[in-house]
Structure to design on (1471 residues):
C-alpha cells in the first residue's frame, strides 16, 4: 500500500516538473527534457513492474495505468511497450486464474496504449487474430471492437486483413459470447468504414474506394445473412441486428448491393415483431436512414411505406415511461424519412392526427414540432397541410393531446413558420389558458383544481413567456394582437409573460423607428382566420358581398398622413367606437365627384380610397352626414343608390381589430397593479406595461409615469406578502392614478375614463376586492375631473341609484363620493346635504303610510339609507382638504350625523354607522394638525350619546367598538373635566370587566361558536378600553387621572371572580406598558403611588389563573422599570434584562426571575410608601384564596428583609398596620411572623411601639408578646424590658416624699405596662436557663416597683385605664410577675412553700410587707437562687430615699444575716 500511495503521488506530479538533460557526446549541446515525460515513463514502468511482480490489486493497477496513458502525451520505450502488451495479452488470454474484471481492465489498457503506440497494439492484436485457425478469444475480439470505436480512421489500413481473418473463423462460431464479440467487431469496424467514407479527407492514408470496402465486407455480410438471421436467443438477435445494420450502411454506398440492402432493411423492420427490446433496433434503423440521406439514394415506395408502418406501431409506446428513451431516436427516423419521402410522411402524420389513438396523436404532434424546426424546404411545404389537419385537435378533451398541441404551438412560434400563421396560434394559447382557469373560477372558493389543468396553464405561461420577438415576422404577428388579451379578466394569470412580450415589442418598434400604424394586411388575415363571423373584424354591409378592406391609403398623395392621436385612436379603438369631428377633405371629394363625365374625375382606386374614408367616418355626426353625401356621389362608380347610402348612415362598428380602448387598458392594469398578492410579480408586470404603453394610452402621461412608476416598483422590490400592507399599497396606487391625471387637460378623456370604470363596475363580482378598488379609482378620477357637471351628476347618480341594502354597493357609493370630495369638497358636500335634506323630508311621510308590514319594511330601508348617509359624511370628512374641513365639520358634518342617528330604537346599522362616523370625523379633525382655537361644540352631545348607549346595552357596545369612538372623541377640544373622565372610566370598565365569563356564555347560549365569537369581541373591547385609558392619561393635564384609573381598576383587581381579575389585569398591563414607553402619561404619579400599586399587584402574582399571575408579573416589571427610570437607579439595565426573562418558558428560570424581581421591586419602594404598600397588600388578605395568601406572605417577608435599613423611621407605623390587620384577619400566624421579622431587625422601636398600647392588653397584644417570647428573640426582648423597667422613674428616687408623690401616674402606668409585657414574655419563654441568669436583674426591678406601689391605689383609681383592669392593688401586678418568674426559676416545692406561708398576701399589705420580704428571701435562699449579683443589685436600696425600698432591703438582708448565722451554728455543731 505504501508503494501504491507513492505511485499515486507520482501520477499527480506528471507535467509539473523538469530536469536537466544529459549532454550529448556529438554536439555538446545541453538542454532540458520535460519532467512530465520522465515522470510518465517512471510511473508506467513502476506500474508495469507491479503487474509483473503480481503486487496489489491487478484491476486497480490496470485502472491507474489506463488513467496515466489517457492523460499524458508521453511515449514509453519500445521495451516497456512490448512488456506491457505481453503482460496485458497474457492476462487476456489466460484460461484460468484470471477474472473477467482483470481481462477487461487489461483490454482497456491496450486501447489506451494505442493512443500513443497504435501500430504496436494493432499488430499484436492482428497476430493473435491470425495466429491459429480457430476462433480468437472473446476479449481479443472485444478489444478490436474498442479499437475501431476509438480510432476509426487509423484502423482503415487494417480493415481488409481483419475481415479476412474473421471470415476464416465464422463457420466455427455458434451462439453465445463469442458471437456477440464478433458481431461487435463487425458493427464497430463497419461504422468506422462509414465514418471514413464521410470524412476520408481527414485520414492521413491514401484514399480507398467504396468498392474495396464492399469487397471485403460483402462476403461476411452474406454469411451473416445466410446463417445468423434466424438465431433464437434475444441477446444473439440484438448483436446480429447491430452488425447487419452497420454493414448495410457500408453496402448502401455501392449501387450493385442496394437491392439486397433493401431486402435486408425489410428484414430489419420485421424484427420489431421478434425482439422484446426495440431500442437497439430503432437506433439501427436511424443509423441506416442517416446513411441513406447522405448517399442521396431514392428509397423504394414499398420500403418507405414499411418504415412508416413500423414506426407508426411504435408511436403509442413512446409516451410511456418505459419508451421515453426511444422518443428522440424515433423522431429522428421520421425526420429522416420525411426528408427523403415527404409525401408518404405527410400522409402518415395526417392519418395519425385524424384517426389515430390518443398516444398516436400525441406522438404525431411531437413529430410535427420536429418538422416545424426542420430546415428542409420539402418538409416545410407540407407543414401547412398538416397544421390544417391538426386544428381539429384543438377541441380534443384529452389533456395529453392538448398539451401536445401547445408544445407544437411553441415549436411553431419559435421556428418562424409564417406559412402556418393563418391558424391563430397565439389565440389558441390564450384560449387554453382561459379554458383551464374557468373551471377553477367557476367552482368558487372551495373548488378543486385538476392537476392536469394546472399543468396546461403553466405550459401556456411558459410558451408566452418564451416568445422570441426578434424572429422574422413575429412583430407583425404579435403587435398589436397581444393587446386584446390584456383587458379580459380571464387572462390575468398571463399578464406577466404578456407584459414582457408587449414591452419587448414596443421597445423593438421604437428602436427600429416604426411608425405607429394599424396591423399589416397579412397579419390581419392571420388574425381573422378560424374566427366565427361574430368575431371577425370585417363587417358585412347590407346587400354587399363580404370583402377584405384595407384601411391603408393607396399612396401618400391620396390620403393625408394621420396625426399621432388619430393613429392611436385607430390602434386602440374598440368595436362600436366612432370617429368624431369633421371628415377631412370631404368638400374636395364632393367637388371632384360632381364633375361632368367629360371632365377628369376620380379614378377607381381613388374612389375606393374615398369610399373607405366615408365608411370610417360613418357612425357619428357631423361626419356621418358628409360621409352619406360622399357615398351618394360615388354611387356611379360603386353602383350604390342614394337610398342605400341613407341606410349606411346608421351607426355601425369600425372595421378594426378587437383592441381595447386606452381607458380600458389603464383601468385593467391599475386593478392588477393594486392587488400585488398572491403574485407580486403580476403587479410589477402591470406597472412596467403601463410605462411601456404610456404614449399609446395618452400623450400627457409620459413625464408623470417616468417618475411615479419607478417609485412604485422600488416600493415593491424586496417586500413579501407579510411585509406589504395592502391598504398602504392601495393608497399608493390611487395616489399614482391621481398624479397621472393631473397633467391630462382633456376633459373628454377623463370623462371617458370614468365611464370605463363605471362600465367595469357592472361586470365585477359583487363584494369583491376588485369592485371596491374600482369604486375608489372612480372617485379618484372624479376628483381629477374638471367637468363639474359631470362630477355632480355622477355623485347624485350614485346617491340615488345605490341600493343601500347591499353592503358592497353602499361601501362603493361612499368610496366614490368621499374620494371625489378631495378636490370638489363643497360641491360634493352640498350635493350630499341636498340629497339628505330631501330624504329627511320624505322619510316621515313614507313611514306613516301603508300597512304595518310595509311600514316596517320602509323603516328598515330608511334606517339603511340613514346609516349610509352618516358614513358618507364621515368619509367626506376623511378625504376633505385640511384647509376647508374645520369650517364645515361642526354643523354640516357632525350635526347631520347626529341628526340622522336620532331614533327611538337604533338598529344594528345605525349603531355601527354612528360609531364609525364619530370615529372617522374625529380622526379627520386630528389629521388637520394645528387646529388653532377650534373646538367641536357637539363633542359633549356625541359623548353623552355614546355613554348612554353603553349604559343601556353594555354587551352591544363591545360589538360595535364604541371605545374607539370615545378614544378619538376624547382627543378633541374642549377637554373633559375630571368628573367627566371619572364617569367615563367607570362606565367603560363596568361594561367591559363585568361581562360574563366564556363558560357562562356557553351555558347561556345555544351555539358554542356564538360564545367564542363574543369572547373574541370582548377581548378586542378590552384592548380598546386600554387605548381609551391611554388617551385619557395623555389628554388630562394633571396626574389625578392616573390615580382615578387605578382607583377604578382596584375594585376589579381584587374581585372574587377570577375572569374579572384577569380582564382587569389585561387592561392594567396595557396601561402600564404604555406608561413605561411614554413617561409623560404619568407625570410622576407612579413614583407617588408606587407602593400602593405594588401592593395591589403583588397578591396577584400567585393567582389561580396562569394568565393572571403572568400579567401581574408583567405589570410589576413595567412598574419596576418606570420606578428605576424616575429614581435613576444605576441597575436600570439589569432590571430591564430581568423583565425580559419573564418570557422564559423554563419553570425554574421563571421562578428565579420572579424572586429577583420581587426583591428589586421591594428595594425600590420608598420608605414613606412602606405603609401604603403593606396596607394595599394586606387588604387582599381579607378576601383571597390560599395561593394568593402565600404570595402576600412572600411579598411582606421579602419587603421586611430587603428594606430593613430604609424603614427604621416607619417601624411604628408598620407595626400599627400589622397590628390592625391582626384584629380583622384570620392569617394571624403570618402577621405574628411578620412582627417577629420586624422585631429581629428593629427590636427597640418595636418594643417601644408595643409598650405604647393601652395598659388593658387585648388578646392581640397578649398574643404578640407571647409570640415574641416563644421566638429566639424572647430572652433579648425580656432583657430589653428589664432595662426599660429599671430606667423608669430613676430620676425621682432622690426625694423623700411618698411613693405617690414621687412618681407621677404616667410613670406608674408605664411600669405597669412593662411589667405586664414581662409577664407575657416570661409566660411564653421556653428557656429557663437564660431566665435564671437574668433573675438577678429582673427580680430587683419587679420587687422594687411592688414596694413602691404599696398604698397608691387611691390615686390610680382616678385613671380610666386602671379602672378597666379590675385590679384593686397595683402592686399585685408586680407580685404576679414575680410569682411567674420564680415559678419558672425554682422547683415546684418552693413555689408551694411560698403559697403555704402566705408570702404573696403579706407582700400586698404595707404592714406585713417586711415579713413577706423576709419569708420570700428565706425561700430564695433555700432554693439557691440568691446570687452575689442579686445581693449587689439590692444593696443600694439600704441607702435609698424611699422608705419602702429601705424597709424591703432591710428585711432582705436581715434574713440573709440570720440565715448565715444559722448556717454557721449548724456547721460548728457538726464539727
Amino acid at each position: 500500500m505504501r508503494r501504491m500511495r507513492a505511485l499515486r503521488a507520482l501520477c499527480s506530479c506528471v507535467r509539473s516538473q523538469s530536469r536537466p538533460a544529459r549532454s550529448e557526446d556529438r554536439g555538446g549541446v545541453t538542454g532540458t527534457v520535460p519532467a512530465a515525460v520522465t515522470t510518465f515513463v517512471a510511473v508506467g514502468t513502476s506500474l508495469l513492474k507491479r503487474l509483473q511482480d503480481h503486487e496489489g490489486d491487478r484491476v486497480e493497477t490496470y485502472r491507474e495505468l489506463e488513467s496515466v496513458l489517457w492523460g499524458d502525451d508521453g511515449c514509453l520505450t519500445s521495451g516497456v511497450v512490448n512488456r506491457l502488451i505481453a503482460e496485458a495479452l497474457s492476462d487476456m488470454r489466460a484460461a484460468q486464474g484470471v477474472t473477467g474484471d482483470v481481462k477487461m481492465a487489461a483490454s482497456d489498457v491496450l486501447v489506451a496504449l494505442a493512443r500513443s503506440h497504435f501500430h504496436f497494439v494493432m499488430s499484436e492484436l492482428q497476430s493473435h487474430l491470425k495466429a491459429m485457425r480457430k476462433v480468437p478469444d472473446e476479449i481479443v475480439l472485444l478489444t478490436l471492437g474498442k479499437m475501431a470505436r476509438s480510432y476509426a480512421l487509423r484502423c482503415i489500413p487494417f480493415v481488409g486483413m481483419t475481415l479476412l481473418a474473421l471470415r476464416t473463423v465464422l463457420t466455427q462460431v455458434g451462439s453465445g459470447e463469442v458471437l456477440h464479440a464478433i458481431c461487435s467487431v463487425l458493427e464497430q469496424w463497419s461504422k468506422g468504414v462509414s465514418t471514413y467514407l464521410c470524412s476520408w479527407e481527414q485520414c492521413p492514408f491514401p484514399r480507398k474506394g467504396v468498392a474495396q470496402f464492399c469487397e471485403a465486407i460483402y462476403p461476411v455480410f452474406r454469411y451473416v445473412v445466410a446463417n445468423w438471421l434466424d438465431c433464437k436467443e434475444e441477446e444473439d438477435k440484438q448483436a446480429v441486428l447491430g452488425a447487419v445494420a452497420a454493414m448495410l450502411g457500408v453496402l448502401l454506398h455501392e449501387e450493385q448491393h442496394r437491392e439486397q440492402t433493401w431486402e435486408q432493411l425489410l428484414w430489419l423492420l420485421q424484427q420489431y415483431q421478434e425482439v422484446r427490446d426495440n431500442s437497439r433496433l430503432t437506433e439501427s434503423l436511424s443509423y441506416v436512414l442517416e446513411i441513406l440521406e447522405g448517399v442521396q439514394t431514392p428509397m423504394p415506395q414499398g420500403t418507405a411505406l414499411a418504415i412508416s408502418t413500423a414506426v407508426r406501431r411504435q408511436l403509442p409506446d413512446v409516451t410511456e415511461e418505459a419508451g421515453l428513451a426511444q422518443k428522440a431516436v424515433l423522431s429522428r427516423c421520421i425526420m429522416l424519412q420525411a426528408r427523403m419521402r415527404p409525401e408518404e410522411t405527410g400522409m402518415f402524420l395526417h392519418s395519425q392526427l385524424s384517426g389515430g389513438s390518443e398516444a398516436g396523436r400525441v406522438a404525431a404532434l411531437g413529430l410535427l414540432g420536429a418538422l416545424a424546426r426542420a430546415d428542409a424546404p420539402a418538409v416545410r411545404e407540407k407543414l401547412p397541410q398538416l397544421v390544417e389537419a391538426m386544428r381539429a385537435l384543438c377541441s380534443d378533451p384529452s389533456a395529453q393531446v392538448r398539451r401536445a398541441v401547445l408544445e407544437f404551438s411553441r415549436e411553431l412560434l419559435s421556428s418562424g413558420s409564417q406559412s402556418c400563421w393563418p391558424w391563430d396560434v397565439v389565440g389558441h394559447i390564450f384560449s387554453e389558458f382561459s379554458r383551464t382557469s374557468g373551471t377553477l373560477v367557476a367552482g368558487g372558493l372551495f373548488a378543486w383544481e385538476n392537476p392536469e389543468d394546472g399543468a396546461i396553464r403553466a405550459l401556456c405561461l411558459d410558451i408566452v413567456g418564451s416568445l422570441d420577438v426578434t424572429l422574422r415576422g413575429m412583430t407583425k404577428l404579435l403587435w398589436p394582437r397581444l393587446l386584446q388579451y390584456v383587458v379580459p379578466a380571464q387572462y390575468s394569470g398571463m399578464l406577466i409573460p404578456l407584459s414582457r412580450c408587449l414591452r419587448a415589442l414596443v421597445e423593438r418598434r421604437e428602436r427600429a423607428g416604426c411608425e405607429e400604424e394599424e396591423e399589416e394586411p397579412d397579419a390581419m388575415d392571420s388574425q381573422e382566420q378560424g374566427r366565427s363571423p361574430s368575431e371577425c373584424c370585417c363587417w358585412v354591409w347590407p346587400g354587399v358581398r363580404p370583402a377584405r378592406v384595407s384601411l391603408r391609403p393607396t399612396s401618400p398623395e391620396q390620403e393625408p398622413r394621420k396625426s399621432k392621436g388619430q393613429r392611436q385612436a385607430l390602434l386602440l379603438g374598440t368595436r362600436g367606437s366612432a370617429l368624431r369631428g369633421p371628415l377631412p377633405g370631404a368638400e374636395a371629394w364632393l367637388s371632384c365627384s360632381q364633375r361632368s363625365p367629360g371632365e377628369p374625375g376620380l379614378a377607381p382606386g381613388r374612389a375606393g380610397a374615398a369610399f373607405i374614408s366615408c365608411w370610417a367616418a360613418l357612425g357619428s355626426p357631423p361626419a356621418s352626414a358628409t360621409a352619406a353625401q360622399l357615398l351618394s356621389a360615388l354611387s356611379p362608380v360603386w353602383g350604390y343608390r342614394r337610398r342605400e347610402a341613407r341606410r349606411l348612415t346608421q351607426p355601425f362598428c369600425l372595421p378594426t381589430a378587437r383592441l381595447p380602448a386606452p381607458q380600458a387598458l389603464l383601468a385593467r392594469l391599475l386593478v392588477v397593479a393594486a392587488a400585488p398578492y398572491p403574485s407580486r410579480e403580476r403587479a410589477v408586470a402591470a406597472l412596467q406595461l403601463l410605462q411601456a404603453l404610456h404614449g399609446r394610452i395618452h400623450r400627457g402621461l409620459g413625464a408623470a409615469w417616468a417618475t411615479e412608476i419607478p417609485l412604485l416598483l422600488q416600493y415593491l422590490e424586496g417586500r413579501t406578502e407579510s411585509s406589504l400592507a395592502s391598504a398602504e399599497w392601495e393608497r399608493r396606487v390611487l395616489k399614482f392614478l391621481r398624479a397621472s391625471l393631473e397633467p391630462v387637460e382633456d376633459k373628454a378623456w377623463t370623462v371617458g375614463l370614468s365611464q370605463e370604470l363605471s362600465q367595469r363596475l357592472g361586470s365585477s363580482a359583487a363584494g369583491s376586492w376588485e369592485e371596491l378598488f374600482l369604486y375608489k379609482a372612480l372617485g379618484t378620477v372624479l376628483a381629477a375631473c374638471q367637468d363639474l357637471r359631470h362630477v355632480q351628476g355622477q355623485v347624485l347618480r350614485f346617491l340615488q341609484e345605490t341600493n343601500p341594502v347591499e353592503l358592497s354597493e353602499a361601501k362603493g357609493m361612499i368610496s366614490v363620493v368621499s374620494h371625489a370630495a378631495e378636490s370638489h369638497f363643497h360641491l360634493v358636500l352640498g350635493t350630499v346635504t341636498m340629497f339628505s335634506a330631501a330624504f329627511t323630508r320624505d322619510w316621515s311621510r313614507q313611514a306613516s303610510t301603508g300597512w304595518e308590514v310595509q311600514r316596517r319594511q320602509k323603516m328598515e330601508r330608511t334606517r339603511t339609507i340613514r346609516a349610509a348617509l352618516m358614513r358618507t359624511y364621515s368619509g367626506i370628512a376623511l378625504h376633505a382638504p385640511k384647509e376647508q374641513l374645520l369650517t364645515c365639520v361642526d354643523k354640516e358634518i357632525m350635526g347631520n350625523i347626529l341628526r340622522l342617528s336620532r331614533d327611538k330604537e337604533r338598529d344594528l346599522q345605525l349603531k355601527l354607522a354612528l360609531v364609525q362616523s364619530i370615529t372617522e370625523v374625529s380622526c379627520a379633525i386630528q389629521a388637520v394638525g394645528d387646529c388653532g382655537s377650534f373646538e367641536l361644540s357637539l363633542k359633549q352631545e356625541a359623548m353623552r350619546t355614546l355613554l348612554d348607549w353603553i349604559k343601556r346595552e353594555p354587551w352591544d357596545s363591545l360589538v360595535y367598538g364604541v371605545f374607539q369612538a370615545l378614544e378619538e372623541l376624547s382627543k378633541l377640544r374642549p377637554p373633559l373635566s375630571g368628573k367627566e373622565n371619572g364617569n367615563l372610566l367607570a362606565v367603560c370598565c363596568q361594561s367591559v370587566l363585568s361581562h360574563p365569563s366564556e363558560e357562562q356564555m356557553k351555558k347561556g347560549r345555544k351555539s358554542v361558536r356564538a360564545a367564542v365569537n363574543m369572547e373574541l369581541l370582548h377581548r378586542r373591547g378590552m384592548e380598546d378600553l386600554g387605548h381609551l385609558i391611554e388617551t385619557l392619561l395623555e389628554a388630562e393635564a394633571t396626574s389625578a387621572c392616573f390615580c382615578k384609573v387605578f382607583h377604578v381598576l382596584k375594585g376589579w383587581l381584587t374581585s372574587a371572580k377570577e375572569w374579572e381579575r384577569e380582564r382587569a389585569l389585561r387592561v392594567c398591563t396595557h396601561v402600564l406598558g404604555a406608561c413605561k414607553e411614554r413617561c409623560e402619561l404619568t407625570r410622576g404619579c407612579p413614583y407617588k403611588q408606587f407602593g400602593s400599586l405594588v401592593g395591589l399587584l403583588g397578591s396577584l402574582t400567585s393567582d389561580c389563573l396562569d394568565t393572571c399571575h403572568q400579567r401581574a408579573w408583567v405589570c410589576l416589571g413595567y412598574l419596576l422599570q418606570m420606578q428605576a427610570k424616575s429614581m435613576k437607579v444605576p441597575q436600570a439595565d439589569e432590571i430591564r434584562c430581568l423583565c425580559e426573562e419573564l418570557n422564559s418558558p423554563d419553570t425554574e428560570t421563571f421562578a428565579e426571575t420572579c424572586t429577583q424581581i420581587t426583591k428589586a421591586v421591594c428595594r425600590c419602594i420608598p420608605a414613606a410608601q412602606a405603609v401604603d404598600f403593606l396596607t394595599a397588600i394586606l387588604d387582599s388578605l381579607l378576601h383571597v384564596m390560599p395561593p394568593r395568601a402565600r404570595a402576600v406572605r412572600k411579598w411582606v417577608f421579602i419587603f421586611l428583609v430587603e428594606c430593613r435599613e430604609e424603614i427604621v423611621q416607619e417601624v411604628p407605623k408598620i407595626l400599627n398596620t400589622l397590628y390592625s390587620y391582626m384584629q380583622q384577619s384570620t392569617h394571624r400566624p403570618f402577621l405574628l411572623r411578620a412582627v417577629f421579622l420586624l422585631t429581629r431587625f428593629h427590636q427597640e422601636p418595636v418594643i417601644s411601639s408595643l409598650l405604647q398600647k393601652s395598659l388593658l392588653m387585648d388578646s392581640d397584644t397578649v398574643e404578640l408578646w407571647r409570640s415574641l417570647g416563644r421566638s429566639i428573640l424572647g430572652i433579648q426582648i425580656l432583657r430589653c424590658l428589664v432595662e426599660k423597667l429599671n430606667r423608669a422613674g430613676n430620676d425621682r428616687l432622690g426625694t423623700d416624699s411618698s411613693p405617690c408623690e414621687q412618681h407621677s401616674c404616667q410613670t406608674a402606668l408605664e411600669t405597669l405596662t412593662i411589667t405586664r409585657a414581662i409577664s407575657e414574655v416570661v409566660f411564653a419563654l421556653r428557656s429557663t436557663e437564660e431566665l435564671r441568669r437574668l433573675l438577678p436583674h429582673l427580680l430587683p426591678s419587679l420587687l422594687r416597683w411592688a414596694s413602691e406601689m404599696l398604698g397608691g391605689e387611691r390615686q390610680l383609681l382616678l385613671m380610666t385605664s386602671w379602672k378597666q383592669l379590675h385590679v384593686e392593688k397595683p402592686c399585685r401586678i408586680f407580685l404576679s410577675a414575680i410569682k411567674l418568674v420564680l415559678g419558672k426559676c425554682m422547683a415546684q416545692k418552693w413555689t408551694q412553700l411560698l403559697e403555704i406561708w402566705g408570702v404573696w398576701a403579706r407582700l400586698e399589705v404595707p404592714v406585713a410587707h417586711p415579713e413577706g420580704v423576709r419569708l420570700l428571701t428565706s425561700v430564695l435562699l433555700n432554693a439557691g437562687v440568691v446570687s452575689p449579683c442579686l445581693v449587689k443589685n439590692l444593696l443600694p436600696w439600704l441607702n435609698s430615699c424611699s422608705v419602702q425600698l429601705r424597709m424591703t432591703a432591710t428585711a432582705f438582708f436581715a434574713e440573709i444575716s440570720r440565715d448565715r448565722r444559722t448556717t454557721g451554728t449548724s456547721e460548728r455543731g457538726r464539727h
In short: The longest helix spans residues 852-879. The mean pLDDT is 75. The radius of gyration is 57 Å.
